[in-house]
Amino acid sequence: MTRARNATGAAPALALALLAATTMGGAAGCGPEVVVREAAFKKAAPASVAILPFQLVDDDAGPRADLKAAALREAFHRRFSSLAYLHLESEETDKRLRRAGLLDPKKLAGATPAELGKRLEVDAILRGEVLSLANLSGGVVYRQSISARLTLADARTGETLVAIEHTEADTGGVLVGSGQLVDAIRDTVDNSSDVGFVRLAERFAESAVRAFPPPPAPARVVPPRIDSVEVRAPAGRTLRAGDEIEVRVRATPGGAAFFDVGRDLAEVPLFEEAPGSYRGAYRVAHGDRAAGPVSVHVSDRFGATARSVPPGGELTIDARPPGAPQHLAATAAAAGEGGVRLEWAAGAGTKAAGWRIYTIDGHGAPALVAEVKGGETRARVPPAAAGARLLAVAGVDERGAVGPLSFVEINPGKTIAKGGTSR
User: Fold this and answer.
1) Cα(407)–Cα(421) distance, rounded to whole angstroms?
2) Residue 252: C-alpha distances to residues 86, 231, 299, 305 (Å)
3) How far lies 419's CA from each of 225, 321, 403, in Å?
4) Which of 281, 280, 283, 269 is nearest to 240 (CA)?
5) Whether the Cβ atoms of residue 406 and residue 325 lie closer than 8 Å to each other
6) Which domains, from first to last, does the chain contain?
7) Apex CA 373: angle with CA 370 and CA 375, to 5°?
8) Of 115, 110, 123, which is closest to residue 46 (Cα–Cα)?
9) pTM, entire model
10) First to last CA, the chain
11) Model confidence over 180-222: pLDDT tens digits?
């Protein structure tokens, strides 16, 4: 096979050579070469499969070849999920390989199917070897191709059960006088780019999976079991910043578990402290807002998921700080008092437990000059602070979270200040 690397500014001869190999362009490549060892395949009866990271065999595959190999693996994985095998998600496979110290390509290549099967807890191992990645363009002519070999091995004996080798290619360009020069140039750019590679990878995966034999017997899916859920949280009130939600679950061991609160607080992890015993906690942070039932999800390594919503598990979280004060205005204080009087109205959102008043210096930095407790929405600013050209007021909740500021400008010589501006 002739391997072609990325090229820019290709010579006219290159374009003519490519053009001679095509008409108006299109897909190229025969069907996959498939070898199935029927007797061994039926005897092994693989039901669960792990698809390993695809390895590059082509040392001259061009830039970003590793990323392209990973994209090809994901394209194949998506198509392979249509077959009746139990298969590990790529993320789960890589996590287990990393934990075993086998994610490095050299270590992975040297690992036996038996070792991998034990680490990944599957019946069969599928390796992908990328033999060639070609991407050649000359003027308005392009050729991009993928060649790869896929091997399914029995994780117990190491025997090869299925071997598939396939090349998928796109070759095309423009014929002089076709009247479609602009469209052809656009198609050339698209198909010789990363976008074109993704399309080609999807076609490769479709062809390879279509050639792949289904399992001798469809795998039996048994979802995890959730036996009990216990939710511990402050009862009878809206949860604020600093409150904690704790969830304890008894379920099938070895799963990945999470809990949600409504739709807004999602996938809080539950950790398996002992076989089948999961626990997780979430401390409400400033700004959180969620409402709804607590729901628990437990998934096995193949993605089969059980869900449980315990009765009486409705929670409301509102840790937003008070909204910006509205209608902020300043007037001169009464004779003999000095300073300035401020008045405002409570903003939307969480009820304020008090208010803080700031002066704003010429650099925009605030300095606290007064505090107001409770529901009072007026205050007198002392004369020293009243000399500032800009004042601001913010609400504060019972946990000390400060909301956004509203600003008012002090206009010397006028009774009423120009105010109500929020930032």
Assistant:
1) 5
2) 18, 18, 9, 11
3) 61, 22, 18
4) 283
5) yes
6) 12-211 (3.40.50.10610), 226-318 (2.60.40), 326-422 (2.60.40.10)
7) 125
8) 123
9) 0.61
10) 66
11) 544 544 444 444 467 888 899 999 999 999 999 999 887 787 8
